[in-house]
């Protein structure tokens, strides 16, 4: 299945802003995070089609998944 | 005497603008404070010459609202220092500054108050002196203290709104909870590398808990703190200051939902508004 992935802030570095990714059916947001090599300790907001979700959220064909790091400096 | 002060200010005004020299004369003649003079200037339908460039933008009423506002800035390092500068120049009447730290050499690349001469001095005292030099009408209360949730009620009491100038997720979550409990608007900002974010947590809302949903990790040691540049910090602080000014000037308008993500490598500014529920 195909999923649109949007990354933000430091997660863009060495990756991309927006990309369409091919994932095995039944993949979760956590699987996507692992496939992208995003450090779990840095994970912030996760949105699927604009709604807040957890890592165990299952993805479906055509979903848009936005992944934000925790931005915490000041 | 109010009439006499008013009459003096009217006679001193040029094109409706009252200059600083006239404030000094008024203070000597009538023994009144800077904020009292500024209130009299605005009440008389005049405008301080210091604010001539924002006269049409804010008008008498907007400038009076800023003068009456009490803003508490929690954290006066990178973000907080620039926010204080912008709000003081705009004419916010009262600023309460909260930060336990002194200026360190490693602050010089991005923190507005940091100078070689002031290394080792408390940040809140240096910023208070700077505000006094820029806009003496602003009443500054510097508190060299760490923000703690259990002391939040007294630290934030009486605020019109609160600025998040903190530098850890854990402290931000505490501040977010405290502002929620006290039903105070909180203007959030955070930076890392070329990126930043800003938002307003409306009174009673839990936006910070939504932005930082994972359990807060312990604060990293200073040497592993996020990379930070003045070019990015000043941008995010400007967003926070603009959001704060809008909130003071038009409190009847709803706060903008969601949050703003800034990417200065692209560059782009994107508003993120999650669906409800």
Structure notes:
The complex is a heterodimer of chains A (74) and B (277). Chain A is mainly beta and 74 residues long. Chain A has a single domain (2-69), classed as Ubiquitin-like (UB roll), CATH 3.10.20. Helix content of chain A is 9%, strand content 34%. Chain A is built from one helix and five strands; from the N terminus they run ββαβββ. Chain A has one helix spanning 29-35; strands spanning 2-7, 18-22, 43-48, 51-52, 64-69. A five-stranded mixed sheet of chain A has the order 2-1-5-3-4, with no helix packed on it. The longest helix of chain A has 7 residues, at 29-35. The mean pLDDT of chain A is 97. Chain B has 277 residues and is an alpha/beta fold. Chain B folds into two domains: 31-64, no CATH class; 69-272, Rossmann fold. In chain B, 42% of the residues lie in helices and 17% in strands. Chain B has helices at 2-12, 20-30, 34-43, 55-68, 78-90, 123-134, 152-156, 169-182, 207-211, 230-249, and strands at 17-18, 47-48, 70-74, 94-98, 139-143, 161-164, 186-192, 195-201, 259-263, 268-272. In chain B, the strands form two sheets. Chain B has an eight-stranded mixed sheet with strand order 5-4-3-6-7-8-9-10, sandwiched between helices. In chain B, helix 1 packs antiparallel against helix 2 (20-30) and helix 5 (78-90) runs parallel beside helix 6. Chain B is globular, with a radius of gyration of 20 Å. Chain B starts with a helix and ends in a 5-residue tail after the last strand. The A-B interface holds A 8-10, 12-13, 17, 41, 43-47, 49-52, 66, 68-74 and B 75, 77-80, 164-169, 172, 189-193, 195-197, 210-214, 217, 225-228, 233, 261, 263, 265-266, 272-275, 277.
What distinguishing features does this structure have?
heterodimer, A: 74 residues, mainly beta, Ubiquitin-like (UB roll), five-stranded mixed beta sheet, 1 helix, 5 strands, 9% helix, globular, B: 277 residues, alpha/beta, Rossmann fold, two-stranded parallel sheet, 10 helices, 10 strands
């Amino acid at each position: 299945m195909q999923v649109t992935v949007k990354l933000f802030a430091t997660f863009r570095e060495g990756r991309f802003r927006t990309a369409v990714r091919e994932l095995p059916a039944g993949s979760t947001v956590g699987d996507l995070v692992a496939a992208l090599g995003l450090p779990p300790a840095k994970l912030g907001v996760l949105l699927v089609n604009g709604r807040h979700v957890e890592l165990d959220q299952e993805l479906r064909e055509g979903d848009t998944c936005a992944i934000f790091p925790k931005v915490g400096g000041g | 005497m109010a009439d006499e002060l008013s009459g003096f200010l009217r006679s001193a005004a040029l094109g409706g603008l009252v200059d600083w020299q006239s404030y000094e004369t008024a203070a000597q003649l009538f023994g009144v404070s800077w904020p009292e003079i500024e209130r009299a200037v605005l009440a008389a339908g005049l405008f301080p010459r210091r604010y001539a460039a924002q006269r049409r933008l804010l008008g008498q009423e907007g400038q009076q609202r800023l003068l009456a506002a009490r803003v508490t800035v929690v954290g006066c390092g990178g973000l907080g220092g620039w926010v204080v500068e912008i709000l003081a120049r705009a004419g916010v009447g009262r600023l309460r500054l909260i930060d336990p730290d002194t200026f360190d050499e490693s602050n010089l690349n991005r923190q507005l108050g940091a100078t070689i001469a002031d290394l080792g001095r408390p940040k809140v005292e240096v910023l208070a002196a700077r505000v006094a030099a820029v806009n003496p009408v602003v009443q500054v209360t510097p508190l060299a203290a760490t923000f703690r949730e259990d002391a939040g009620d007294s630290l934030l009491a009486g605020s019109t709104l609160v600025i998040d100038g903190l530098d850890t997720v854990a402290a931000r979550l505490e501040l977010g909870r405290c502002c929620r409990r006290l039903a105070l608007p909180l203007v959030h900002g955070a930076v890392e590398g070329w990126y930043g974010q800003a938002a307003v947590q409306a009174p009673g809302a839990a936006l910070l808990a939504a932005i930082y949903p994972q359990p807060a990790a312990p604060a990293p040691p200073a040497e592993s703190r996020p990379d930070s540049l003045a070019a990015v910090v000043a941008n995010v602080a400007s967003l926070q200051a603009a959001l704060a000014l809008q909130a003071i000037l038009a409190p009847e308008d709803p706060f903008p939902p969601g949050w703003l993500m800034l990417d200065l490598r692209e560059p782009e500014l994107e508003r993120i508004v999650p669906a409800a529920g």
